[in-house]
Write a structure and sequence with these properties.
Elements (H helix, E strand, L loop, with lengths): L1 H56 L2 E3 H8 L3 H9 L8 E3 L2 E5 H15 L4
Antiparallel strand pairs: 1-3, 2-3
Helix pairs in contact: 2-3
Length: about 120
């Protein structure tokens, strides 16, 4: 009977140890997940900062500023907007047309290719 009692206590002790090991494994898993979440949030913050920087490098320009950026007169800029093929397209916002600097750069490259008969 004493042996059965000891055997029962041994099984209970083994179950407690198994439970403790499982709890420790769970805590370790939670710690790993938290570390991974911190890394993911840091990467997300970095990406958001990078995208804001890209936006700063590619601002929206009004027609006057866009013409100045291109180094042309307002009349020549209007020609590019209305008469040439390809046309320089912008986005209308409250009656004002705005142009992305990157789109102006693309237009200039394409216009040059078309003017030289390569596009």
């Amino acid at each position: 009977m004493a042996a059965e009692s000891l055997n029962g206590k041994g099984e209970a002790m083994a179950q407690m140890l198994a439970g403790l090991a499982a709890a420790q494994t769970l805590q370790a898993t939670i710690a790993l997940m938290q570390a991974e979440m911190r890394r993911a949030f840091a990467a997300l913050r970095e990406e958001m900062t990078r995208r804001e920087t890209v936006e700063d490098l590619d601002p929206w320009l009004d027609a006057k500023t866009a013409a100045k950026y291109m180094g042309v007169s307002a009349g020549t800029f209007d020609k590019y907007r209305y008469l040439t093929e390809p046309k320089l397209n912008g986005c209308k916002l409250d009656g004002k047309t705005l142009y992305k600097r990157s789109e102006i750069d693309k237009f200039v490259r394409l216009y040059e290719l078309k003017s030289n008969g390569r596009a």
